C-alpha cells in the first residue's frame, strides 16, 4: 500500500491540468484523498518503526513524538551505542538532543539484528518519502486555493487554507465541521522533555500559522484563534455552496476579525475626577408633632451653653486650668452677665435624661 501511494504521488504533476474548474476541483478532491492515505500510511509506518526500535531505544518514542523526526533520528542513530558522535542538530532542538543523550546513556537496551535494522531503516526512508510527497501535494493545493476556496483563502491565507482542507479531508468535510474542531486541526502534542510548562503556550494547530494570529499579542492569541476558527468555518461553507466566487465576503470577514482584535487592545478611558456636588443649604421641610417638639427640646441649646460660647470684649474668660489653659467658661460667672435661670421644664428634662 505504501509503494502504491508513493507511485501515485510521484506521478502527480501540476502541468497535467487543462484549466477546467470542475476538473481542477476533482483533482483537489483526489489530492485530499491522497493526503488522507499519506497520513494513514505515515501513522502505520511510524508505529512499525517504533515497535521494532523499542528494543534498541525504548525511551526515544516519548522524547521524539513526531513521526518524521522519529524516523530521521532512527535513521541517523542505527545501532550506535555512543550518541556523542551522532549529529542531530539539524533534526532536533538542543534541549531535546540533551534529553535523548541522557536517556541513551541510562537505558538498558540491546542492538537490533542486522535484518531487523535493515527493514527499520527502509521504513524510515519510506516515511521520509511520504512526507516529501505530502509537501508536494500541499504546494499544489496552495496554488489552486484561489479558485477552489477564495473566501477561505482570503480569511486565513492560501497555505493555511490548503492545510485545513487537507487535514479535514476535503472542502465538504471542512464545511460540515464545527468551529471548535477547526481550531484543533493540525495541533501537535507539545513535548517538554521534563521541563517546566509555566512559560509554554497552548498549541492551536494550523490557525496559529496565519498572519493575523502571529501579529496578535500573546494574551489575545486564544481569543483570536476562536474568532478565526468561526469565521473560517463560515467561509468554507460559503465556498462549498459557491455563494461568492470573487472572495469579497472572505475579505470582509478578515477585516471584521482585525477590527475585533484592535478593539481588544484599546485601553479603557481614564477615570475622570468629578467635583463634589453643590451642598444644599436649605432645610428640609419636616412634619411637626409631639415627637418632633420633644426632640427639639432634647437637643436645644440651653442658656448656660449660650453663655459658655459667648465672650465679652476686653474681659478675659476664666478657664478650667487657669492662665488661659483648659476649657474656657466664656461669660459664665462674669459680673454683668445676668443670672442663669433654669426653667422647670429644662430641669425635668435633665432629670429625665439622667434617669
Offer a concise description of the structure.
This protein has helices spanning 2-10, 21-53, 60-63, 67-77, 94-106, 114-148, 150-156, 158-168, 171-175, 179-182, 211-214, 221-241, 248-265, 290-298, 303-308, 344-354. It has 355 residues and is an all-alpha fold.
Would you spell out the secondary-structure blueprint of this structure?
Elements: H1 2-10, H2 21-53, H3 60-63, H4 67-77, H5 94-106, H6 114-148, H7 150-156, H8 158-168, H9 171-175, H10 179-182, H11 211-214, H12 221-241, H13 248-265, H14 290-298, H15 303-308, H16 344-354
Label this structure with key terms.
57% helix, NOSIC, Nop_dom, 355 residues, mRNA splicing, mainly alpha, 0% strand, ribonucleoprotein, elongated
Written description of the protein model:
The protein is mainly α and 355 residues long. The protein is 57% helix and 0% strand. It has 16 helices and no strands. The protein has helices at 2-10, 21-53, 60-63, 67-77, 94-106, 114-148, 150-156, 158-168, 171-175, 179-182, 211-214, 221-241, 248-265, 290-298, 303-308, 344-354. α1 (2-10) packs across α6 (114-148), α2 (21-53) packs across α4 (67-77) and α7 (150-156) packs parallel to α13. The longest helix has 35 residues, at 114-148. It is elongated, with a radius of gyration of 43 Å. The relative contact order is 0.08. Residues 14-19 and 341-345 have low confidence and may be disordered.
Amino acid at each position: 500500500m505504501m509503494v502504491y501511494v508513493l507511485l501515485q504521488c510521484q506521478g502527480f504533476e501540476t502541468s497535467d491540468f487543462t484549466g477546467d474548474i470542475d476538473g481542477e476541483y476533482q483533482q483537489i478532491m483526489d489530492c485530499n484523498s491522497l493526503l488522507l492515505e499519506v497520513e494513514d500510511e505515515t501513522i502505520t509506518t511510524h508505529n512499525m518503526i517504533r515497535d521494532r526500535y523499542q528494543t534498541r531505544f525504548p525511551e526515544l518514542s516519548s522524547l521524539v513524538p513526531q513521526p518524521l523526526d522519529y524516523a530521521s533520528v532512527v535513521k541517523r542513530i542505527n545501532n550506535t551505542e555512543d550518541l556523542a558522535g551522532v549529529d542531530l542538530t539539524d533534526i532536533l532542538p538542543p534541549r531535546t538532543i540533551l534529553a535523548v543523550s541522557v536517556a541513551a546513556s541510562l537505558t538498558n537496551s540491546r542492538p537490533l539484528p542486522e535484518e531487523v535494522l535493515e527493514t527499520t531503516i527502509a521504513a524510515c526512508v519510506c516515511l521520509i518519502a511520504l512526507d516529501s510527497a505530502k509537501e508536494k501535494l500541499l504546494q499544489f493545493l496552495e496554488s489552486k486555493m484561489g479558485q477552489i476556496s477564495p473566501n477561505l483563502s482570503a480569511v486565513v491565507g492560501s497555505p493555511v487554507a490548503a492545510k485545513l482542507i487537507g487535514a479535514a479531508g476535503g472542502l465538504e468535510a471542512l464545511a460540515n465541521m464545527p468551529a471548535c474542531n477547526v481550531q484543533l486541526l493540525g495541533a501537535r502534542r507539545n513535548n517538554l522533555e521534563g521541563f517546566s510548562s509555566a512559560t509554554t503556550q497552548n498549541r492551536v494547530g494550523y490557525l496559529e500559522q496565519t498572519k493575523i494570529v502571529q501579529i496578535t499579542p500573546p494574551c489575545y492569541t486564544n481569543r483570536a484563534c476562536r474568532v478565526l476558527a468561526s469565521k473560517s468555518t463560515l467561509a468554507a461553507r460559503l465556498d462549498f455552496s459557491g455563494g461568492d466566487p470573487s472572495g469579497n465576503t472572505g475579505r470582509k470577514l478578515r477585516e471584521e476579525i482585525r477590527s475585533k482584535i484592535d478593539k481588544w487592545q484599546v485601553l479603557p478611558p481614564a477615570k475622570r475626577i468629578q467635583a463634589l456636588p453643590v451642598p444644599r443649604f436649605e432645610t428640609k421641610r419636616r412634619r411637626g408633632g409631639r415627637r418632633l417638639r420633644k426632640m427639639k427640646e432634647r437637643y436645644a441649646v440651653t442658656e448656660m451653653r449660650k453663655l459658655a460660647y459667648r465672650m465679652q470684649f476686653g474681659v478675659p474668660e476664666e478657664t478650667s486650668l487657669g492662665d488661659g489653659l483648659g476649657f474656657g467658661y466664656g461669660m459664665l460667672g462674669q459680673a454683668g452677665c445676668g443670672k442663669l435661670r433654669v426653667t422647670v421644664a429644662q430641669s425635668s428634662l435633665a432629670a429625665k435624661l439622667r434617669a
